[in-house]
């Protein structure tokens, strides 16, 4: 099955930048990244997990709160997921999780790129353990 390994979190001052990474692989030596779309979520203690960004091929969606500041991408033959976070704000402080969903008709992968799409945790099948981001003075 899919394995997700996150890294890149840390502590930064407001206005700073961080780049989160999520390495992906399947249980076999031969991977097929195109079978999945991916997303980033974040969660503050005591609150529900919030969709931050989602990507499927060249298409992507972003939460309004991060639009223009965050950029999601898949590189290294789409085996790695990234979230470049610029101009960080204290409100960005959270645990950040990468997630993957299997492609399929009517699933989240079809919706990515559509106007107003926001990823929901229940749509995604595989999850990383999270990496903490703290933005403070």
Structure description:
The chain has 137 residues and is an all-beta fold. The chain has one helix spanning 108-111; strands spanning 3-7, 10-12, 18-25, 36-43, 50-56, 59-62, 70-75, 80-85, 94-102, 126-127, 131-135. Strands 2, 4, 5, 6, 9, 10 and 11 form a 7-stranded mixed β-sheet that branches. Strands 1-3-8-7 form a 4-stranded antiparallel β-sheet, with no helix packed on it. It starts with a strand and ends with a strand.
Q: Quickly count the helices.
A: 1
- Main β-sheet description: 7 strands, mixed
Shape: globular
Proportion of helical residues: under 10%
The assigned structural class equals mainly beta
Number of strand elements? 11
> SSE string, helix = H, strand = E?
EEEEEEEEEHEE
Beta fraction of the residues?
over 45%
Mean pLDDT: 90
Task: Report the end-to-end length measured between terminal Cα atoms.
Answer: 41 Å
Uncertain parts: none
Radius of gyration: 14 Å
Short description:
This protein has one helix spanning 108-111; strands at residues 3-7, 10-12, 18-25, 36-43, 50-56, 59-62, 70-75, 80-85, 94-102, 126-127, 131-135. By secondary structure, the chain is an all-beta fold.
